[in-house]
Amino acid sequence: MPISSAVIAERQTEAEQYVRSVYDKVVRRDPNEVEFHQAVKEILESLVPVLARHPHYIQHGILERLVEPERMITFRVPWMNDAGEVKVNRGFRVQFNSAIGPYKGGLRFHPSVNLSIIKFLGFEQILKNALTGQPIGGGKGGSDFDPKGKSDAEVMRFTQSFMTELYKYIGPDTDVPAGDIGVGAREIGYMFGQYKRIRGGYEAGVLTGKGIGYGGSLARKEATGYGCVYFAVEMLKSRGLSFQDSTVVVSGSGNVSIYAIEKAQQLGATVVACSDSNGYIYDPNGIHLPTVKRLKEVERKRISEYVTEHPGATFTEGCEGIWSIQCDIALPCATQNEIDEDAARTLVAGGTIAVSEGANMPSTLEAIDVFHKAKVLFGPAKAANAGGVAVSALEMAQNNMRLSWTFEEVDAKLQAIMRSIYNESLRAAQAHGDPDNLLMGANIAGFMKVADSMIVQGVI
Ligand code: GLU
């Protein structure tokens, strides 16, 4: 029987009240966790249409359960620096949701890391991982350790100490960490070595982002950046556009940014800017990627050094200004909240047609609103940057099968996954009355997979 409009209106109000009550409780319980509140607000508000249409989600108390991590672990990480001084950092692992698979998500080493940051990242990860179509739950971890300026030996001692505690909680079938900001191939290598040593066995699938020689997957390093561009390709296609001859700004110069730049350039774009935490470089002739790769991946230097080798380029201190550079496509690949309302307005005024988020939550809620109102194609992080974790799941699959696929095979699977994430997000957005809102679509598509699995598994 068709539902009357009065019933629909009543259900909408009920769904809104439910969302508000869950959100208020989250804020009341942990009033200082502002980043987590932001992620919860963004996701919960966009779920109202699906809750109104399927009120059984409310009866099953899905949202109350979803916002509460299954387990949160914090631990002491003592280590000794090169001067022989004892240092103590804090370690975290938030095992958020295992409804559809073992917890999966990166480790972030950055001085800003606290429980709020890890919870926001872990919460996003639940839906992101569901969107990939792979059997992986959501988790995240890290430490307030700052790898910047530390020697290799210090990084090794720190990561070994970190793993000496973390190993108790992870495993190929329970929780599979990977990299994030401040955690790359070097850190994963040291952590894998320490895990193997403690466990006394070769459990290749316990970490992803491993080196190719010891169980890593080809194309994992490239996956987040490439995936972010593949997602943008799908969005642009919907308006008959492409990267060819476009001007692109990519923030950051870490693993995500470098491979977003590479793919955008391969597709015929001119990438004119990128950044690090000190500031940004602008090169109107197009960023020379081999220089950025060498500076960042090999020499671990600051991006400002780029201008000494490329006199046509300029360096500007501070990061916000990067969004005042005119561009057709913006790929924020640095960190959370790097595009605020003003930056979003500047981009829109400059004629930006697409934003694809390579970082996690790089746009504030107000910025997203500006993009939606201006009909800018907006690829939300949990969809646009899911390529990294998707290929991590492919790495786990290869480890289980004890074989490795070629670069081309993995890249083809990545492209298919990004296309499918785009299509699923679009379909969910269309089905819930806001066809241009891929953020809502991605949230709903990811949510339904997780919520349906939680319901059939009982009150867990
Ligand atoms: N840190 C990445 C993310 O935010 C990758 C996680 C993983 O590969 O497990 O999705």
> Could you give me the name of the CATH homologous superfamily of the largest domain?
NAD(P)-binding Rossmann-like Domain
CATH class of the largest domain: Alpha Beta
Structural class: alpha/beta
CATH architecture of the largest domain: 3-Layer(aba) Sandwich
DSSP strand count: 12
Unique ligands: glutamic acid
Low-confidence stretches: none
Briefly say what this structure is.
The protein is of the alpha/beta class. The protein has helices spanning 5-29, 34-46, 48-53, 56-59, 62-66, 115-131, 152-166, 185-199, 220-237, 255-266, 289-298, 306-309, 341-349, 365-373, 381-384, 387-401, 407-431, 438-456; strands at residues 71-80, 86-97, 103-109, 137-143, 175-178, 247-251, 270-276, 279-282, 314-317, 329-332, 354-356, 377-379. It is 49% helix and 15% strand.
How would you sum up this structure, described in words?
The protein has 460 residues and is an alpha/beta fold. The chain is built from 18 helices and twelve strands. Strand 1 (71-80) and strand 2 (86-97) form a beta hairpin. Helix 1 packs antiparallel against helix 2 and helix 13 (341-349) packs parallel to helix 14. The protein starts with a helix and ends with a helix. It binds glutamic acid. Residues 104-106, 178, 180, 208, 360, 388-389, 392 line the site of glutamic acid (GLU).
